[in-house]
Amino acid sequence: MYPYRYSNLKNNYALLSKTALEDLRIYFREWRPHTYLFEGRKGGEYAAQSILKIVKDAAIKAKIPQTVTPHVLRHSFATHLRESGTDLRQIQVLLGHGSSKTTEIYTHVTTNTFKEIKNPLD
Known about the structure:
Elements: E1 2-5, E2 11-14, H1 18-31, H2 48-61, H3 70-83, H4 88-95, H5 100-103
Antiparallel strand pairs: 1-2
């Protein structure tokens, strides 16, 4: 897990695979970004609309029929973490939620796995 600053308000954390890290190192050596890891054509930060277009284009290339947005990716990431047994507090930290109430929306996925729980009375 690697900390990064998304805004001036707080640090956030991201999971980063070894493969992705190596790809980022190659990218960094080639492009030499100055302020942001991924910079726009003039060196500034990407606009939200540009990021949305990149995500939507990738979804089209991947032949994903559903509408995909950065927020959908974030929600899917958290849902998959929860379904694989990750503690809600850890998800809260990864998503940067100030309140555990915000993260509790991911508790709905646990009902999908109730049938897999072994009843100690059986």
